[in-house]
Design goal:
- The chain is α/β, with parallel strands linked by helices and about 290 residues long.
- The chain has one domain: von Willebrand factor, type A domain (Rossmann fold, 3-Layer(aba) Sandwich), CATH 3.40.50.410.
- Helices cover about 35% and strands about 25% of the residues.
- The chain is built from nine helices and twelve strands.
- A six-stranded mixed β-sheet has the order 7-6-3-8-9-12.
- Helix 2 packs across helix 4, helix 2 crosses helix 9 and helix 4 runs antiparallel to helix 5.
- The two termini are about 25 Å apart.
């Protein structure tokens, strides 16, 4: 489903569910294909199975009688992190970076919920990493609620980013974690890299979704424009053609350096644009984790 169509729904819960169901159609029947460790998988109906276990919504799409196998609560914890700095308000063709990331995280939360994974939600704003939803009962619904009302503003620049007091991840015995960050990953210094380096380890994978605009990358503009820094509010008027090559070169250099800096164990970077189908982006992320 196109991102613009999901945005028009104006309902994060429905949008996230539609994306997750689209993903399920592609990965049902495969062991450990989901985001966590214990995936709630499907198999074909067999004589003796309780008909109530047939997924009739899936049948309507596939014309196959598929039974959802029961899953126990997994030993897997997904920590979602949403960037809420002002640059997340960037928009192209009716799709804002913030809304794109909200739907992306809501879709992943649905997958985690179906697998009975533990989940929590953090945000990055005003120089701090804040916890919005701790792990526990009803965390899935609370995550959707907090994502729905989240607003982006201000700057996020922190020389030594850390988890908030009381929110520092503590590993349980045999527990593994996935740290999922949705952001433009644009930094003034090395604040993003320091955060990633501080959390990545053998028991915690890091999955980074860097969401950029096509126009941000191409900078294919002509004429005079008033450019505004969405975090500081500073404005400047420039002739776009005069700075095009410099902007493109600096952008390419930054992204290349970022790619190199993130070639570290247990870290996966997925770079996408605002117009890439979200289900396709998540599918690529899941594939990458299995490589």
């Amino acid at each position: 489903m196109l991102t613009t169509e999901l945005i028009k729904l104006n309902n994060l819960q429905i949008a996230g569910k539609l994306v997750s169901e689209e993903l399920m159609l592609g990965i049902h029947g495969s062991k450990r294909s989901g985001i966590g460790i214990e995936f709630e998988q499907y198999r074909h109906y067999e004589p003796g199975d309780d008909p109530k276990r047939i997924d009739w919504k899936l049948y309507a799409r596939t014309q196959k009688h598929l039974v959802r196998e029961s899953a126990t609560e997994s030993n897997f914890h997904i920590r979602f992190v949403l960037d809420l700095s002002g640059s997340m308000n960037y928009e192209e063709k009716g799709v804002s970076r913030l809304n794109y990331c909200k739907i992306l995280l809501a879709s992943l939360a649905y997958l985690g919920y179906r697998q009975s994974d533990q989940m929590s939600l953090y945000c990055l704003q005003n120089g701090d990493l804040e916890i919005l939803v701790p792990a526990g009962k009803q965390s899935f619904q609370r995550i959707l609620y907090e994502l729905e009302k989240a607003e982006a503003k201000g700057v996020w620049q922190n020389e030594n980013p850390k988890f908030p007091a009381g929110g520092e991840p503590q590993f349980q015995q045999k527990q593994k974690e996935l740290f999922v960050l949705a952001s433009d990953f644009l930094q003034v210094g090395d604040e993003w890299l320091k955060l990633i380096q501080s959390v990545a380890n053998p028991r915690r994978e890091v999955l980074i979704f860097q969401v950029l605009g096509e126009e941000e990358l191409s900078f294919n503009l002509n004429g005079f424009y008033r450019f505004k820094d969405l975090e500081t509010g500073r404005e400047i008027e420039l002739e776009a053609l005069a700075i095009r090559e410099e902007v493109r070169q600096k952008a390419q250099s930054y992204l290349a350096n970022l790619d190199e800096a993130l070639r570290i164990p247990h870290v996966h970077l997925i770079r996408t644009t605002l117009h890439e189908p979200i289900a396709q982006v998540i599918s690529e992320a899941l594939r990458m984790r299995k490589i």
